[in-house]
Amino acid sequence: MPIKYIKKADKTASTDEEETRQRVQDILKDIEKRRDDGIREISRKFDKYEGDVVISREKIEAVIKSLDQKVKDDVQFSYDRVRKFAEHQLKHLNNNFEVELSPGLFAGQKLIPVNSVGCYVPGGRYNNIASAVMSITTAKVAGVKNVIAASPPKDENGANPIIVYTANLCGADIIMNVGGIAAIGAFAYGCFGNPKVDMIVGPGNQYVAEAKRLLFGKVGIDLFAGPTEIGIIADHAADQEIIATDLVGQAEHGPNSPAWLYTTNQSLCDYVMKRVPELIAELPETSRNNADAAWRDYGEVVLCDTNEELCQVSDEYAPEHLEVQAENLDWWSEKLQNYGSLFLGEETTVAYGDKCSGPNHILPTKRAAKYTGGLYVGKFIKTVTFQRMTKESNKEVGAAAARISRLEGMEAHARTGDVRLRKYGFQN
Q1: Rounded to whole angstroms, what are the CA distances from 287 to 89, 172, 206, 243, 330?
Q2: Residue 305 DSSP symbol
Q3: Cβ neighbours for 243, distance < 8 A, ≥ 6 positions apart
Q4: Domain 4-14+227-373 -> CATH class
Q5: 115 burial type by CB count under 10 A (0-12 exposed, 13-18 middle, 19+ buried)
Q6: How far apart are CA 134 and CA 380, in angstroms?
Q7: Catalytic-role residue among 210, 253, 321, 361
Q8: CB within 10 Å: which end of the chain, N or C, has fewer?
Q9: Regarding the domain delimited by 35-221, which CATH topology (the fold level of the hierarchy) does it fall under?
Q10: Which of 210, 300, 320, 323 is catalytic?
Q11: Per-residue pLDDT tens for 148-203?
């Protein structure tokens, strides 16, 4: 039986990209020209906010005192696990080294953290507390000296107090009340007395993602991100109610968040097609509206014949989050190649990874998992190289470089070798 689409999405992650791109370009140009004034105007227009942009130390201390201890404990729980996982990643990165490639020719590498990073923490539709943990903590573990966090104002008092508390706990050096394109522009152009950042990270809506894409090159970014995605591989052994619930759990993120099921079980297809709309109908209004549009326009149910076909389909989609609720989990772990983060077995779920289980939740979307992984300590670290040589080694290396340069027609390159060969007493 060929692969069969029980439900096929009407839209893709690229829908409406051109309109978004033009709007973002116009706003970024205005911010580059007007800097602080442009950002304040955008905050007044879109967030109805006219207060301080940079949050003072006194305001942060007041926020810390105002929060319930249980809230602080839950944030600490997430922070401890994300930090511990990042610390273990750092230990397993390749170390600095130097090697003698041939007599007198030494080369090596050094791992150097990025100096300054902007961490964007969404706070519009939902208060993405965990995003502050994921980005700021990982940057600090990597050794980034200057971390600037920004989150949109919740009301006239500024960003959500829990986000402010979390950003401070995780080590942010500066926290700003500014969101969306304005925040990304503030990072890149060094507004409000802050230095220009070298790199911008963190999730956001399509406008945030497009702003990061347009600024890539001027600054580094974590990855080109689209709406969050979930793919689920399931067989006859899967709990059908859990599958339906997990699909809805990610569709809640927004009206353009894809949710995909790949299965060999016709009964599961039938159950999901009936049950997902029922679960969506039971949600609070904002979540219901988001999930309803996401499932209607972006949800897919794919029926396959074999496990190999399931792997083929999943690897082609390269989902940001991939759950496997099937027998023989080790086989799937070995076979699957393209995903942002893998969740093996029904005991774990994407929401755990989103909030507090440890691995980073800032992950590749729009099939980018075919060529990159998600945010981790290594993204904040530059692997740079160096070399040093003895005069004696020039006899071999200088002569070879000069000959290769002339074969390429690059005479000036060749002469940089010639001049050394003459100085050190070697004939070319």
Answers
A1: 34, 30, 18, 18, 35
A2: S
A3: 232, 234, 261, 268, 271, 272, 325
A4: alpha beta
A5: middle
A6: 13
A7: 321
A8: N
A9: Rossmann fold (3.40.50)
A10: 320
A11: 999 999 999 999 999 999 999 999 999 999 999 999 999 999 999 999 999 999 99
Neighbours of 272 (CB within 10 A): 28
Burial bucket for residue 44 (CB in 10 Å: 0-12, 13-18, 19+): exposed
> Are 244 and 272 contacting, i.e. CB atoms less than 8 angstroms apart?
yes
Q: Would 4-14+227-373 and 35-221 be classified into the same CATH topology?
A: yes
List, in sequence order, every beta strand (DSSP E) within 184-223.
Answer: 199-201, 220-221
Active site residue 92: no
Cα–Cα dist 428/122, whole Å: 62
Q: List helix spans (H) across 282-425.
A: 285-298, 307-317, 329-335, 350-355, 394-407, 411-423
DSSP E strands in 82-142: the ranges are 97-102, 105-113, 116-120
Nearest to 399 by CA among 99, 98, 102, 100: 102
Dihedral pair phi/psi, residue 171, rounded to 5°: 110, 15
Q: How far apart are CA 218 and CA 104, in angstroms?
A: 38
As given in the structure block, the two tokens for residue 278 are 């029922």
| CA distance from start to end of the chain | 69
Measured distance CA(49)–CA(55) in Å, rounded? 14
CA dist., res. 289 & res. 317, Å (int): 25
Q: Parallel, antiparallel, or unpaired for β 199-201 and 116-120? A: parallel
Is 285 one of the catalytic residues?
Answer: no
Domain boundaries, the chain: 4-14+227-373, 35-221, 390-423
pLDDT band at 14 (very low <50, low <70, confident <90, very high): low
pLDDT of res. 16: 64
